UniProtKB/TrEMBL annotation:
Species for this entry: Arthrobacter terricola
NCBIfam families for the chain: sporadTIGR04255
Name of the protein in its database record: TIGR04255 family protein
Lineage: Bacteria, Bacillati, Actinomycetota, Actinomycetes, Micrococcales
Amino acid sequence: MMSDTSAPPAVSDAPLGGLPSADKTLLANAPLEVAICEVRFTAEVGSVPVETAERVRDALAKSLEVDFTSIQPAAQNTMEINLNAVGASWSGEETKGWQIASAQGHHTATVFPGSVIWQVADYERWSISMRRPLELLLGAIASDLFPSLVQRIGLRYVDRFVDSSCVKPQDWEGKIEASLLGPLCNPVFGGLVTSSQQQVDFALDGRHGAVLRHGPIPDPASRSVNYLLDLDVFANASELFKIDDVLGTAEKLNRTALSLFQACVSVDYLKALQGEGTS
């Protein structure tokens, strides 16, 4: 086991990839549906004892003051494709772990022998909703699973913008940044577009990247059109497992995700989400 018990290093406010610093004003009208953090690592054990899941549950419940009522077996399937002279062959493997969920299902922790996943649906702010739970999870696996190397750290934020006045995709002009709307703004056929899902890949530097999936999503229940921003920011590199380093990288990814998010909406719409101009 390798862990770092020294004081956390200072984390620069600057996002990765030379992106501009983000406005840290909390959103009064937050569109975030779910936030997810995953840390993948190599470990010396091939299974997760149920005692580890119990320890995670108790630590999360005490720190977050949330009732975690469920511990259930979890399975993760991986598949590898092998190409050879006679064709292709497939081999798969199932990894077993535990999922710890809150009573209302808004908080979920999943622990596998090679990864931990934290998911929250009632996000407040980074320090409360993500950093502290992640620190507890990393502490649990450090003492029980003996991780040696961190392979990947990823954050995913799924935002769904809802506006009853947007009854067609083109109504998101002026709210979503114009360069993202693409075909919706085409002067010839833009008015005919009913759906447009896009994926944008970013190379932030040699070890960090991001993927943005976005587009208008019809909502038959409200007879309106929502807009989805699904943002995944990640670090890919093999480094020694140190809790403070993982937390520092995750915080940089969070600042980067916030910068990208704010670049996806217009200035006026960001102010509206922050609550400016509302009573």
